[in-house]
Each structure stands twice: as structure tokens, then as C-alpha cells.
Amino acid sequence: MANKTTGSYRQVLVRVRRITRQLTHHNWRPQVIIADFQMALWNVVETELPTTTLSGCYFHLTQSFWRKIQEFGLARSYRMNQRLQDTVKKFMAIGYLPIPLLRNNLRELEQSRRTHRLGNDFPALQDCLNYVGNTYIHPDATYPPTAWNVHNRNMAQRTNNHAENE
Fold first, then answer.
1. DSSP-based three-state secondary structure for 93
2. 52 and 62 inside one domain
3. Alpha helix (H) residue ranges in 53-160
4. Which of 6, 48, 60, 166 has the most CB atoms within 10 Å of its CB?
5. Tens of pLDDT, residues 97-129
């Protein structure tokens, strides 16, 4: 979708509801929607489908992390430094942990000797970790862990890639 605004998402949702009703003679009431991390989409689903569980797609979560790594100028260093790769992979895998362990594990990762040494070589690493914490892990995060954590999800519920490829 080219125009990812609240209005555009609302139009699509209204159209899906109408077409579903025309074809099936039933109201469209999905139990779960797995979506990427577009705030406009989340706002529309939460207001238009308040009984639907909205979950973040894990693939898109890691893509969001990767975009931040690129924004902070760490992509080239990531490709060339195994220690940096290992650390980044740890915070990309954090979604597999049980929710009660997330904050402590992120804090341990931030405070580890390896991360401090890497922070000396790559100061933007701390900015990445701050982004992950503020956007996805802390209690007032934009997308709280309950919205994207995959620890208790089966494989089909972790990503929406199968829907995007059809």
C-alpha cells in the first residue's frame, strides 16, 4: 500500500467489511490480525475492530530493528564484525523470551562487558538498544511486548508473510 495513513487503512478496512458481507452475508469479525508496525494501521484496527487481537509480525519486528541499525550507521560494521553481529542477533531474538524476562535480559545485554566494549568501538550501538527498549520493551513502549512477543505463539501466528505472499 503506497499511502499508509489512518484514512487509507480505514478505507481498506471498510471495503473489506463490505465485500465480505456481500459475498458471505456475514459480518467480518477476525479474532486475530497479525500486522507490521505501522501506527496508523494499529490505530484503525483498535478503533474499528475493538474485539480483535492485534499482534505484531515478528519478521517485521526484526526488519524494524535492522532499519534502525542502518539509520544509526551500523550496517557495514555489522557485516564486518562478528562480535557486533552476535550482540545484535541477541536483541533481535529477544521476542522469543517469556515477557517477564524481557526487561532484565535487555538490561543484562546493555550492561554486559561485551556490549560496553562494543559501545566503545560503535557508540551508536547504545542508541539502537535505547530504541529497542523505548519502542518495544519498556512499560510505556509504543508497541508493548504483549503486542509482538512470540514466546507463546505457534509458527503460523508469528508472522504475516504467508498472507503477504499470496
1. coil
2. no
3. 58-71, 75-80, 82-92, 102-111, 113-121, 124-132, 145-148
4. 60
5. 999 998 899 889 889 999 999 999 999 999 999
Q: Which residues of 104-143 are buried (b: 16+ CB within 10 A; e: fewer)?
A: ebbeebbeeeebeebbeebeebebbbebbbebbbbeebeb
Residues 66 and 118 in one domain: yes
Looking at the fold, whether 64 and 45 belong to one and the same domain comes out as no
Q: What is the pLDDT of residues 43-89, one digit of tens each?
A: 999 999 999 999 999 999 999 999 999 999 999 999 999 999 999 99
Q: Which residue range is the domain that position 42 belongs to?
A: 6-56+160-164
Instruction: Tell me the C-alpha distance between 40 and 34, whole Å.
Output: 14
Both 65 and 79 in one domain: the answer is yes
Number of domains in the chain: 2
How far apart CA 81 and CA 60 sit, in angstroms, is 24
Interatomic CA distance for residues 157 and 58, integer angstroms: 9
pTM: 0.78
Residues in the chain: 166
Q: What percent of the chain has pLDDT over 90?
A: 75
